[in-house]
Amino acid sequence: MLVRLTAAVLAGVLLLIAAAAWADELVAEPDSYRTENYRAPVPTTLAGARVLSTQDTETIWRARSAAFIDVLPRPPKPKNLPAGTVWREQPRLDIPGSIWLPDTGYGVLAAPTEDYLKRGLARASDGDLGRLLVFYCLEDCWMSWNAAKRALTYGYRNVAWYPDGTDGWARADLPLRQTQPEPRTEE
Length: 187
Prior knowledge:
- The protein has helices spanning about 1-25, 55-65, 110-125, 140-155, 165-170; strands at about 50, 65-70, 90-95, 100, 135, 160, 175-180.
- The strands form two sheets. It has a five-stranded parallel β-sheet, with helices on one face. The protein has a two-stranded antiparallel ribbon with strand order 3-7.
- It has a domain at about 40-75 and about 90-180: Rhodanese-like domain (Oxidized Rhodanese, domain 1, 3-Layer(aba) Sandwich), CATH 3.40.250.10.
- By secondary structure, it is of the alpha/beta class.
- Residues about 15-25 have low confidence and may be disordered.
C-alpha cells in the first residue's frame, strides 16, 4: 500500500513539474504587434482570429473557401554589389493559390507598405470584409501573426492564422508552388 501511495505521489509531482515546464514554454499574446525577433516561438492564440492546424488549413484549401495570404519578407538586393555580380532572387514556395505580400508582417509598417497590404487584402477578399483570409509564412514566425492581427484592425471579420506556415505544410507532404510577390504598385 505504501509503495502504491509513494508511486502515486511521485507521479503527481512529475505531472506538476511537466505542466509547469509546458506553461513556461507558452508564449503570451502581446497587446500590440511584435516588433523584433520575428523568428521565435509564437503564441497559440490570436484574439479575434481562428488559429488553424495543418489539417484545418488543408480542409479550407481543398474547399477553396478562403484567400491565402503569405507575408514572408523578401530579402532585398544587397547594395553596392560589385559590378558584374549576378543577383538572383531566392524562390518562394507557397501554398498553391496564395498571394504573396512580402514585408507586410513587420510590427511597424511604412505608409507605402501598409497601403500595399490594404490593396492586397482588398483584392484577395474581393472587397468582402467577411471573406475568410488565412495568413501564414513560416513556422515560429511572428510576421503572419502581426499581419492577421492587422487585418482585424482593418475590419476583416473572418481572419485565420496558420502558425505552422509552409514548414508545416511541407512536413505534411502537401503541394507547394513557386510564386512571385504581388506587384507593389497599382496597375
